[in-house]
Specification:
This protein is an all-alpha fold. The protein contains 14 helices and no strands. About 25% of the residues are buried.
Length: about 280
């Protein structure tokens, strides 16, 4: 009986030691906490950016892949991975990464508000497709998108523009503006391209339209000056100009009867020689 109790005691102590060791490993690196995942993911992304800036695209791509392995929704790392493929001469892989980046940003709360990064990805995608030897397949993918969004139309316009097909590019710029006529960036890009093509009359209208929506855009203002137009309030439409304050609601009615009563009586003619006048005769 003694040996049995000693064996039970030893087993309990061993189990307790294993439990303590497991807890220690979990706290010291045996388990991976969310904080460590975030740190490693951010560290790999930063390493990738540093290597990318040094033109070490192969190792940069490895770092971005590791960051994405830990956080697949990291659209910044995915965009840079596409850039690495672009620099290494793998346009099809780059295009796939850019498309995945745009799709991920569409379904990400942070990505939806990151207009600057989305603009860079869209530009990179357009450049990559335009420089393909055979771009028909990737063009068809964009053209099949329904309903067509302004972004789709701008993407098609840029692909045609960078491919040297100015006529089709203008068709897609016009399409983008028809879909979203209130977009200052579309009017700006369309107008600047028209100016570049030497179509001054059409560029004048587009740039005036863009300036009316955003008077602080220096590129648009500079383009207007090149066309001989002086930027200023006169370029705004009538409904965009500041108007004097007018109180809301009906104007109060004027009581004409009371105003007539309070008006002073008309002066009476003075009879010559009347008392108190300066023309009365003296005795």
């Amino acid at each position: 009986m003694k040996s049995a109790s000693l064996f039970q005691c030893f087993s309990l102590k061993r189990m307790a030691a294993v439990a303590v060791l497991s807890l220690g490993l979990a706290g010291c690196g045996g388990g991976i906490s969310p904080e460590m995942i975030t740190y490693n993911h951010a560290a790999y992304r930063q390493q990738g950016i540093e290597k990318f800036d040094k033109a070490d695209y192969v190792n940069a791509a490895s770092s971005f892949k590791e960051a994405l392995r830990q956080e697949p929704g990291d659209y910044t790392s995915r965009y840079y991975l596409g850039q690495c493929y672009d620099k290494m001469g793998h346009p099809q892989q780059a295009i796939e990464e850019y498309r995945t980046t745009l799709n991920g940003m569409t379904h990400s709360l942070e990505g939806k508000g990151d207009v600057q990064t989305r603009g860079k990805v869209l530009e990179a995608l357009a450049q990559a497709i335009a420089h393909e030897p055979d771009k028909s397949g990737d063009m068809a993918i964009v053209e099949r998108q329904q309903p067509r969004t302004p972004e789709d139309a701008i993407l098609l316009a840029r692909i045609c523009r960078y491919s040297g097909d100015a006529d089709t590019a203008l068709v897609h710029y016009q399409e983008a503006q028809q879909i979203d006529p209130a977009s200052a960036p579309i009017a700006k890009e369309y107008g600047l391209y028209l100016e570049q093509l030497g179509q001054a009359k059409k560029a004048d209208w587009q740039l005036r339209h863009a300036y009316a929506m955003n008077t602080r855009d220096e590129e648009v203002a500079a383009a207007l000056r090149r066309l001989g137009v002086v930027p200023g309030p006169s370029l705004k439409s009538e409904d965009q100009l500041e108007k004097p304050f007018v109180p809301l609601g009906p104007l109060p009615e004027v009581d004409l009867s009371s105003s007539n009563k309070s008006s002073a009586p008309a002066p009476q003619p003075v009879t010559p020689g009347a008392v108190g006048t300066s023309s009365s005769p003296r005795d």
